[in-house]
Amino acid sequence: MEVVNALGRRKSAVARIFVSEGTGKITINKRDLAEYFPSSILQYVVKQPLNKLGVAEKYDIKVNLCGGGFTGQSQALRLAIARALVKINAEDKPALRAEGFMTRDPRAVERKKPGRPKARRRFQFSKR
């Protein structure tokens, strides 16, 4: 199997991944998964597509991850992994789509409007 690459995005986080056959090692920005995401919840989010298909120990994944916060980064990585698994085997797509792993979450920060302190917040009203 040759190296398969994929891209995942969430908010302002971008994950570029390279999947090859291996022992289940996930390397993010030259650091181990447990070192990069110390939270077990975020590690679980990243591994969800692999665990769903039961291939967690089958592939080595190298990741370039930039932008956003840790939650956005973990969800961007989950999308990239799901897309790469579909490139490897197209028959897995319905199972991953049913879990919602194939859908890019379009929500992002709303822009700040002029004359306001934030996007929707108004200055305090003063009657006098």
TrEMBL record:
GO terms for cellular component: cytosolic small ribosomal subunit. Residues 103-112 have a biased composition (Basic and acidic residues). PROSITE patterns: RIBOSOMAL_S9. Residues 113-128 have a biased composition (Basic residues). HAMAP family: Ribosomal_uS9_B. Belongs to the universal ribosomal protein uS9 family. Keywords: Ribonucleoprotein, Ribosomal protein. It comes from the Bacteria. Gene3D superfamilies: 3.30.230.10. The lineage of its organism: Bacteria, Pseudomonadati, Bacteroidota, Bacteroidia, Bacteroidales. This is Small ribosomal subunit protein uS9. Residues 103-128 are annotated as: Disordered. PANTHER family: RIBOSOMAL PROTEIN S9, SMALL RIBOSOMAL SUBUNIT PROTEIN US9M. It holds the Pfam family Ribosomal_S9. GO terms for molecular function: RNA binding; structural constituent of ribosome. GO terms for biological process: translation.
